[in-house]
Amino acid sequence: MDKDTKSRKVYTKRNSISFVVASLFSFGIFFVLPMIIKMAKRDNWESSLPPITTNLFPVGLVNILFVLWLGAWIYSKKIVYDENIPYSRVFNVNNFAIIFIIEVNLFFATALMNVLSVWGILSIFILTLMMIYVTFSSKNKSLQSLLFGYTFVNNKMDSFFKKLVENCIKFGGVIVLIYLLCKIFSSSKGEIKTDFMGITIATVSVIVMNIIVVIGEAYLLFPYLLYGYYKEKYSEEYRLYEGKTQLEWYGEKYFDKHIKGTSLEES
């Protein structure tokens, strides 16, 4: 894990151009989706979807999410030193991925609310939450078994959620198709018939995207975040274990600012 992150320059090189560009892109993308919602609420906006009546994605919420992400980014910059640069950047990438997926889900929930109804949107969110629980529970048990040799037996709740999520993934497409057909053909004559294929693709795309992000978080980012957390929490223990000096471990800038001349400096 250490070799993997340290072999990638985007994680280890300070102020790399690619990371700066990615950060600037991150700043801008927070406000793109709510602007589209704002434009779609105008009377002259042409769309096959019914007019937006409920906005689940106001600019105020975007500002809150942005401030949270920015605060976490500033915090990570303050505590960064040479040895934990890779995990600091994985931490920021993870935070951006979480907030971005929240924004995308709220965007589609707002756009499709009048087509799928409140119950349809809630069903997608509940399925996503159950999938998060099952995936991270499974990964957590796998890591504990690997690290500590624990043996786990699934309880009734774990087994129920796991089976439910597996069946939803298997038959989710069919369920969505049937629901959309019922919703469209049962609508009153005065309502606008929306583009069936477009709505189906959009809905399935959101579900698939949620599945990909949850699996990616659990199996690609979570192990690195956990390792980085313990490496930060027990920094000196890791340093002594790897046989490095404080200057080698923390870097000259961090060492001079936080360690040199204090009780933390080795004699």
From TrEMBL:
Q: Does the keyword Transmembrane helix apply?
A: yes
**Key words of the record:** Membrane, Transmembrane, Transmembrane helix
Q: Mind telling me which residue stretches traverse the membrane in this protein? A: 16-37, 57-75, 96-113, 119-136, 164-186, 198-222
Can the keyword Transmembrane be found in this entry's annotation? yes
Lineage top rank: taxon = Bacteria
Give the protein's recorded name.
Uncharacterized protein
Q: Which organism does this record belong to?
A: Floricoccus penangensis
Q: What is the lineage of its organism?
A: Bacteria, Bacillati, Bacillota, Bacilli, Lactobacillales
